[in-house]
Task: structure prediction
Amino acid sequence: MSRTLDLETWSDAGIPLLRNPREFVGALHARHLPAPGTAIVAVLDPLHRVVGSASFAPRADSSDGWQYRNAILAHLRRVVPHDLRRAVPSRTAVLLLCRAGEPGWTPQDGAWMWGLRDAAGLHGLRCGSYITLTPQGWQVLGDGRHGRNPHAGSWTDGSPPANVATLPDRSSDSRHWARRSAPPLRRAAGR
Result:
């Protein structure tokens, strides 16, 4: 069984477009500061506002859409209740994957797309955009919109830290937190 989608199938699936992808990617990046190897799942309400998001690091040996689906679904369950009782989905699940390598579609992206589509349906949500964040910038696969910033290395000035304990302490930097005046979002910690 093939648990992957090619870019043409994804493009033809009628995925709802993000209203302002540059602003959305920037806000999600500022909230989660993803390093390469991090996925972020976010849920948008009918007005395209983020109502919940979670960042997580998938297993390194994982490359099957089934495993990606299970990881996405587990994090969706932590941040928003399901919408399975609705006749028509009103909220949308979006996935951002921060990865190394070249921009453009890869077979691993196809597995992530399959996982997002399946997890969204199982949680009663519409399947939304799939975004990659690479060293060259961000891109919404399937609709051609892209930008240079943020990119996969913009979360830090130096090389990626070995673990979370080596991230810079932001508790004393009130200016950093003052920039985020948006209402707080529900967030689940990744494993």
